[in-house]
Amino acid sequence: MNNSGSAIVTVIVVVAFISILATTILYVSGTNFYMKMTDLHTKESFYEAETALEEIKAFLMEQAAEAGREAYMDVMIRYASTDGYTRYALYQNRFFALLNEKWEEERTPVGGTERTYLETLASLISSYPVAPIDPSAASALSLDMSIPNAGSMELHAEDGYALLRGLIFTYTKDGYTTMISTDFIISVPEMNWGVDSYQSTWDVSANLERDTVDMTDCVQYYNWTKQ
After folding, report:
1. What is the C-alpha separation between 25 and 17, in angstroms, rounded?
2. Residue 104 included in any domain
């Protein structure tokens, strides 16, 4: 009746309000921190998985570059006796034949036995210590068995590309798992077949520097998905 005790009630209300506000702030901060840590672990897992596939891509680019150079030299030998269309057709067919040969050679190391497609691909990943893949390992390369001949080099020379299909790489770190599935599409390296108008003869050694293989975008991911 005479407002006795109103001060302590006010203090209790203010303390309760501050407590609720502080709890809300802590909860939001904790949630934000958890989301950032989840994002960090997810990105780490993704980049580790992507690194393995980048190693395979680098190998395919090297193989494509070698096949392109050899196909180029083979066509240049017959340059004078062929027209532009014939040169490109010969170059394209020879490129894919060499690419397939190199892939099959990789499967059978000198003095060794023929490896499976999975064992061959696993051997290209420096971060993975053994092949074949151990299913219980945190990191695992596998092939999509729903795709016929997954891991083989499919040649589509008439369409100007080759496919390495059905690769799946799974990486787990700190309880976070990333699974990337992809194919690799390999196109014919672009080539400059032009000749200077004043040039009457073709000196291969003199023109290799000018007519170089363009490896830009020669090997690309195809049907790439991430989970």
Report:
1. 12
2. yes
- pTM, rounded to two decimals: 0.68
Q: Which domain holds residue 12?
A: 6-226
Distance CA 178, CA 41 (A): 10
Are 62 and 99 in contact, with CB atoms under 8 Å apart?
no
Burial 67-101 (b: 16+ CB within 10 A, else e): bbbbbbeebbeeeeeeeeeebeebbbbbbbbbbbe
Asked, for residue 19, whether it belongs to a domain, the answer is yes
Give the three-state DSSP class for 167: strand
Classify residue 1: in a domain, yes or no. Answer: no
Q: Give tens-digit pLDDT for 90-143.
A: 888 888 999 988 888 888 876 677 888 888 888 888 755 443 444 444 567 888
Spell out the residues 6+ positions from residue 107 whose beta carbon is closer than 8 angstroms to its own. Answer: 114, 115, 116, 117, 120
- Residue 199 lies inside a defined structural domain of this protein: yes
Domain total in the chain: 1
Question: What parts of the chain have a pLDDT lower than 70?
Answer: 1-5, 37-42, 45, 110-111, 127-139, 192-216
